[in-house]
Amino acid sequence: xxxxxxxxxxxxxxxxxxxxxxxxxxxxxxxxxxxxxxxxxxxxxxxxxxxxxxxxxxxxxxxxxxxxxxxxxxxxxxxxxxxxxxxxxxxxxxxxxxxxxxxxxxxxxxxxxxxxxxxxxxxxxxxxxxxxxxxxxxxxxxxxxxxxxxxxxxx
Length: 155
Hints:
CATH architecture: 2-Layer Sandwich
Order of helices and strands: EHHEEEEEEH
CATH superfamily: START domain
Structural class: alpha+beta
Strand order of the largest sheet: 1-7-6-5-4-3-2
């Protein structure tokens, strides 16, 4: 069974290098809503290197793993290994890929494109999981675009 990848996109008015930096180093500031940790997150971290960790940290300092960084190619691409299984629990033996690309636009801005693929790895739950996370990815990117607009106001 093959499940179509989830694709979400936004355009922001920052060049790729700045968009990449804001997306990756300040992800915890623009990621809206509840995450998978037992308590609300105070930080979401992408360690800036291939084989880095992808996790959240709560106010008590407890970390909840989400996955890992598979490729770190600033300012154009970051490839993440989503290691959350069908119960949204970290499973180091499970992996789907989330690729985020940053493409320069003619107006000086950047198209940010997210593709979550390999969803068939969720097995019998693939359609259900895809249906749950599909709207969430666009919501996350919309939150990022809003964050970038707010950053422009203070710069």
